[in-house]
Amino acid sequence: MTGTPVRLDMSAPTRGARGKPPRHFVDLTPEQRVEAVTALGEKPFRAKQLATHYFTHLTSDPSEMTDLPAAIRDRIGEELFPQLLTSVRTLTADGGTTVKTLWHLFDGVKVESVLMRYTNRSTLCVSSQVGCGMACPFCATGQLGLTRNLSTAEIVEQVRAAARALADGEIPGGPGRLSNVVFMGMGEPMANYKAVIETVRRLVAPAPDGFGMSARNVTVSTVGLVPAIDKLAAEGIPVTLALSLHAPDDELRGELVPINTRWAVDEALDAAHRYFVTTGRRVSIEYALIKDINDHAWRADLLGEKLNARGRGWVHCNPIPLNPTPGSKWTASEPEVEQEFVARLRAHGIPTTIRDTRGSDIDGACGQLAAEEDE
């Protein structure tokens, strides 16, 4: 299994040969938004008006911004609110409370997002890259390879669209609000660091400069890009870190997660523990249970030992029944094996919860819809 090697230039996202997405209002800082509207000949207060419309009213359509003079709406739309995402396919499950959307971007490439509404929260899983360069062989997105990084606005637009759907009552359960965002869709978030951290800033900034979400309700996942984990820890934004481990031993993890040959299991776990020490936020360990590959009881014991070697109370483990892709040799563990794996971890005192795998009947694994579109 091969893929595009990961790029670790965390100063700017990789754009690829397809070109850079058009500038969008959300790509700009509050100060840059003021500069942008004054460059269009408008008063500085327009920047706050536009931010209120976008982050509070959840609209990017200037025709809905009725407190703006009609004469300037078209120009503002063209200059600051280009359409970045177009929904081309939507699948639902769980009585309509799980919604998977396939988006086409400005250059025709495809990404997916999944909105999941529960009784006490609503969570959006966003994509941060078109494809992925990590080449994990059991992952549908990893099989696509990396096309390009998403811009900040391309990620944030996934969030705004989901928040608007909830607010408008389009999801069963009546009008609601988006409470959680997880960077667990297509791509390796830490390989698109700048756009991801700028997105996080838009998520947690108080209105009208952002969505005003709690940092603890934002989860950023990674397969273990150690320098990026340390950089995230220093940002002062205590989001939840999720480390996709999938194996506690280097021999197997090197096969399942090729980046392990650069940063081994212990290095990734050390970085995750440093994140906990710096932020005080408990780290999630993600572990896809794959039948006869990584679901052995002794591997559960080894994982428990390695986590406890770094202290107590710093981690939570989420075993995930693998959502297999069509034609793949990789499949989910048997229920009794899964239960034994969980029991072994809990015996080591590791808080462990089987992660809900919603949407398995709608090509729930990220990348499946995009792959189908390319067939």
TrEMBL record:
Example of a GO biological process term: tRNA methylation
Pfam families listed in its UniProt record: Radical_SAM (PF04055), RlmN_N (PF21016)
Region described as Disordered: 1-21
SMART domains with a match to the protein in the record: Elp3
Chain positions recorded as S-adenosyl-L-methionine binding sites: G187, E188, S221, S244, L245, H246, N323
Matching InterPro entries: Aldolase_TIM, Elp3/MiaA/NifB-like_rSAM, Methyltransferase_A, RlmN_N, RNA_MTrfase_RlmN, rRNA_lsu_MTrfase_RlmN/Cfr, rSAM, rSAM_sf
Ligand binding ([4Fe-4S] cluster): C132, C136, C139
Principal EC category: transferase
Cellular component aspect of the GO annotation: cytoplasm
Reaction(s) this enzyme catalyzes, per UniProt: adenosine(2503) in 23S rRNA + 2 reduced [2Fe-2S]-[ferredoxin] + 2 S-adenosyl-L-methionine = 2-methyladenosine(2503) in 23S rRNA + 5'-deoxyadenosine + L-methionine + 2 oxidized [2Fe-2S]-[ferredoxin] + S-adenosyl-L-homocysteine; adenosine(37) in tRNA + 2 reduced [2Fe-2S]-[ferredoxin] + 2 S-adenosyl-L-methionine = 2-methyladenosine(37) in tRNA + 5'-deoxyadenosine + L-methionine + 2 oxidized [2Fe-2S]-[ferredoxin] + S-adenosyl-L-homocysteine
Other remarks on this protein: Reaction proceeds by a ping-pong mechanism involving intermediate methylation of a conserved cysteine residue.
Name this protein carries in UniProt: Probable dual-specificity RNA methyltransferase RlmN
Gene designation: rlmN
